[in-house]
């Protein structure tokens, strides 16, 4: 049985709206290597449609530029098959990408039978996954900033969500990765 790992950027106050960070988002070589290690061996990247609209073209450009310091990460993201969950898109405009809609629990559980999955977002998609109890592991990248209001990924849980600490890592620039699994 595979697992679904959530990989999400948030700010210190839990706000997951990266747009509010502007140019203050921490990214460096050490973090890029960490992101590569977390994605290696995953069978699929899962995305909501809004995140796919930005993430797929951005990392395709990085992958195409061998001089980009994040080329290895861009290439791995681009080469890993992606599944975009959307209720409004009917055709995929991206290479190496398929679209899914319908019962999210049924689709994810069917994928998890034989596959390891990594989710990059977006917020409403992630909320739905958490709310349906589909996430097995949480890798939360806490950016060194506070949003001062905005979207939080844990608003769909009905009761406390007990988690087991797995590891943490501090990166240059003050970003902290917190890794938890379900108890």
From TrEMBL:
Source superkingdom: Bacteria
GO molecular function: 5-amino-6-(5-phosphoribosylamino)uracil reductase activity
InterPro entries, alphabetized: DHFR-like_dom_sf, RibDG_C
Pfam families: RibD_C (PF01872)
GO biological process: riboflavin biosynthetic process
Bacterial bifunctional deaminase-reductase C-terminal domain location: 3-176
Protein name: Bacterial bifunctional deaminase-reductase C-terminal domain-containing protein
Species annotation: Chitinophaga barathri
């Amino acid at each position: 049985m595979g697992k679904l790992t959530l990989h999400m950027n948030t700010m210190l106050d839990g706000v997951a709206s990266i747009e509010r960070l502007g140019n203050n988002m921490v990214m460096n070589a050490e973090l890029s290597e960490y992101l590569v290690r977390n994605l290696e061996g995953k069978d699929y990247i899962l995305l909501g449609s809004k995140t796919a609209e930005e993430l797929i073209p951005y990392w395709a450009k990085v992958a195409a530029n061998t001089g980009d310091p994040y080329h290895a990460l861009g290439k791995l993201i681009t080469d890993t098959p992606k599944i975009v969950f959307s209720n409004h898109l009917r055709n995929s405009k991206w290479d190496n990408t398929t679209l899914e809609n319908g019962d999210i629990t049924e689709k994810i559980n069917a994928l998890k039978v034989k596959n390891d999955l990594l989710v990059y977002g977006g917020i409403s998609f992630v909320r739905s996954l958490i709310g349906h109890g589909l996430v097995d592991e949480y890798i939360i990248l806490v950016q060194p900033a506070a949003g001062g209001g905005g979207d939080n990924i844990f608003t769909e849980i009905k009761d406390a969500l007990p988690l087991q600490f797995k590891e943490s890592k501090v990166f240059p620039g003050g970003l902290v990765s917190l890794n938890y699994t379900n108890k």
